[in-house]
Amino acid sequence: MISRISAVFVILLAGLAGAKADWRAAAKRINITPEKPMWMGGYSARRAPGSGKTTELYAKILVLEDGRNKRLAIVTLDLIGVPRSLRTALEKRVNSDHGLVVGELMLNASHSHSGPMIRLIPGFKAGQPDRASFDRVPDDEEEKYVKLAQAYMRDLEDSIVRSIGDCIKRLAPAQLLFSQARCGFAMNRRLPVGDRFLNSPNPDGPVDHSVPVLQVRDDKKRIQAILFGYACHATTLSYMTFSADYPGWAQKYLEDSHPNAVAMFVAGCGGDQNPYPRRKPHWASRHGRSLADAVEAALIANPTAVKGNLRTAFEYIDLDYATPPTRAQLELKAKSKDRYDQRHAQFLLEYLNVTGSLRKTYPYPVHVLRFGDSFSMIALGGEVVVDYSLRFKRELKGRIWVAGYSNDLPGYIPSLRVLKEGGYEGGGAMRYVRSIPHPGPWAESIEQRIVSKVHDLCRSTEK
Q1: Which residue, 408, 415, 378, is CA-closest to 396?
Q2: Kindly report the CA angle at 382 between 212 and 443, in degrees rounded to 5?
Q3: Between 303 and which of 177, 207, 339, 367 could a Cys-Cys bridge form, CB atoms 3.0 to 4.6 Å apart?
Q4: Distance from first CA to last CA of the chain, Å, rounded?
Q5: By the 8 A CB rule, do 105 and 71 touch?
């Protein structure tokens, strides 16, 4: 499984001929394709565990060091998300083992819906065991699949910590180059019909088709690593075999074209974006080819050399929930004929009985990474809708790369517009999140709380 680690891809970049390199870097990839059948994440309709593979799944690591010896470890994962438990564990271990502080670790998941389910329901009190957060597992098999998920996560955590250490040992002179292109298959999926919003193609809805690319080249100008992003769900198809969906195909095509390279996908603000067309297997590879071609265009589109220092800022902020339901409302909802409403109410009642109160806030990660004066990356937790990316690019100075699905997966993060409109991304999906006892939708303060903190952290990294 994860112990099958591929050969290390060490980035040896000399910069321009005769010039002193501004960076040091090293990269590595780890095969994390499950060897045993595991329950899959992303779709509640599945009735059996997934097995086999359509593409491999990888964790990929890029460690960078600037001229002041400040380091950053970027980890990308072909998984549904980054569980809070994984982020917390890695924060502690990379600090104790490798001296990285909280802002020097960035985790991003592609949000593939054809990978293993790794989120579990944690015990509400000390000594209470974790439980399955995935649907339709037979009761007599739940313990088996919970243990498989726990073992998978332990193996993943250990492999990431070891690989970051290995990259640190192999750091070598590097030159970084930044550029952008565009790719068009992402489309807004919130279609207004009367007073509702259907999960259907909306060609008039907001999108972000930008493809930001960070590349590294060796002393012979060969590409050695490619970090690229796109704002779109990885939901081309509901496979029953493990697959990284279109991001996996894009990475594969890039690595086939550049055999020395580690290609790393960073999911953007695609919470309300789907790949279209979809639902047929060939579209995953075709969308992957389309995205890979956009990256190839960016590689030659007059990239800018990244100069200067690396600066990072990371904070957890409290996001408020709207007024939570009362016990009486939950007890009534627990009798609903809608199985998802019923299950959500029962889940909250259980949490209420154990803890005495429902949650009022959620600790939400906001991460800013400034790469010299070339560009800044804003990494936000959860399934962030595209409004945030478009807003930050309007309001912030310089080149801005906005990533979602980073450092945690608390569910959908709507803008105020989407929250008020309602629908799945606006709050309806909260009832499906079983790994976190969300009492209901977010409060209307959500967008301004996030935007204000991003502006604060961006200002702090300008110094």
Answers
A1: 378
A2: 125
A3: 177
A4: 44
A5: no
Question: 322: which 2 tokens?
Answer: 């709207």
Taking the CA atoms of 90, 350, 48 and 382 in sequence, report the sign of the dihedral they define.
negative
Q: What is the pLDDT along the chain (463 residues), one digit of tens a residue?
A: 544 434 333 333 333 333 345 899 999 999 999 999 999 988 877 888 999 999 999 999 999 999 999 999 999 999 999 999 999 999 999 999 999 999 999 999 999 999 999 989 998 888 889 998 887 888 889 999 999 999 999 999 999 999 999 999 999 899 999 999 999 999 999 999 999 999 999 999 999 999 999 998 877 777 889 999 999 999 998 778 999 999 999 999 999 999 999 999 999 999 999 999 999 989 999 999 999 999 999 999 999 999 999 999 999 999 999 999 999 999 999 999 999 999 999 999 999 999 999 999 999 999 999 999 999 999 999 999 999 999 999 999 999 999 999 999 999 999 999 999 999 999 999 998 888 999 999 999 999 999 999 999 999 999 7
What is the Cα–Cα distance from 316 to 283, expressed in whole angstroms?
Answer: 38
